UniProtKB/TrEMBL annotation:
<comment type="similarity">
    <text>Belongs to the HyuE racemase family.</text>
</comment>
<dbReference type="InterPro" id="IPR052186">
    <property type="entry name" value="Hydantoin_racemase-like"/>
</dbReference>
<dbReference type="Pfam" id="PF01177">
    <property type="entry name" value="Asp_Glu_race"/>
</dbReference>
<dbReference type="InterPro" id="IPR015942">
    <property type="entry name" value="Asp/Glu/hydantoin_racemase"/>
</dbReference>
<dbReference type="InterPro" id="IPR053714">
    <property type="entry name" value="Iso_Racemase_Enz_sf"/>
</dbReference>
<protein>
    <submittedName>
        <fullName>Hydantoin racemase</fullName>
    </submittedName>
</protein>
<dbReference type="GO" id="GO:0047661">
    <property type="term" value="F:amino-acid racemase activity"/>
</dbReference>
Length: 222
């Protein structure tokens, strides 16, 4: 099957990092192409950035969604997820929605980790909009500018480990998921109190399952 990852921001590097995680999750025998939004912000760190990304993202969807079996929306804010789904005839998975759905199946309540505290209230509202507020333990936005670099940063890993510990011990999380694209590549930590998963991987696994279900349904109908 063929998959696509759409990144609403302008970062080629972040797109490549997300695609690497998604390809590993999907496994061999499939293809996944990634596309960034050259007209979008460098990164989505505010509600204003989120809104700025929408026109270019929908244009990406119009160009690429009809060419594949399923799509990953590669942004933790699930930017314009509803609009993309209305635009598409294929499954589209958002990172935070997938993190909450799959994470809670593995052991609710779920803790979410992103980069920077400014978007935390928006994440909380997003989870409530999905009707999943009762499954949320808490959200932490770590101060980790090093996460936006090309290589993994040990200081980011330390802050991530501390955030997992806080979500478990102070908020009761039984599973923690990183939802920021900038945290791709940091989930293989040792000595975490509870399991830690990557939100991009969650979205990739969800679209793989949904694409297979859709394919089976189409075959049955034919």
């Amino acid at each position: 099957m063929r998959f696509v990852l759409l990144n609403p921001n302008a970062s080629v590097e972040m797109t490549a990092r997300m695609c690497a995680v998604a390809r590993e999750a999907i496994g061999p025998g499939h293809t996944l192409d990634g596309h960034h939004n050259p007209d979008g912000p460098a990164a989505i760190r505010s509600a204003a950035d989120n809104a700025l990304a929408v026109p270019g993202l929908l244009a990406l969807g119009a160009r690429h969604l009809h060419r594949c079996d399923a799509a990953i929306l590669g942004v933790s804010m699930d930017t314009a997820l509803g609009e993309l789904r209305r635009q598409a005839t294929i499954p589209v998975a958002g990172v935070t929605e997938s993190a909450m759905l799959l994470g809670s199946q593995l052991g609710a309540p779920v803790g979410l980790i992103t980069v920077g505290p400014d978007l935390v209230p928006l994440y909380r509202d997003l989870v409530r909009q999905y009707g999943l507020g009762s499954r949320l333990a808490g959200i932490i936005g770590i101060e980790a500018p090093g996460a936006y670099g090309g290589a993994t940063d040990t200081s980011v890993a330390d802050k991530l480990r501390d955030a997992v510990r806080t979500l478990h011990r102070a908020h009761g999380a039984r599973v923690v998921v990183t939802v920021a694209a900038a945290l791709c590549g940091y989930v293989n930590l040792r000595d975490t109190d509870v399991p830690l998963y990557d939100g991009i991987a969650c979205a990739a696994l969800q679209v793989l399952a949904l694409a297979r279900l859709r394919q089976a349904s189409l075959s049955s109908a034919g």
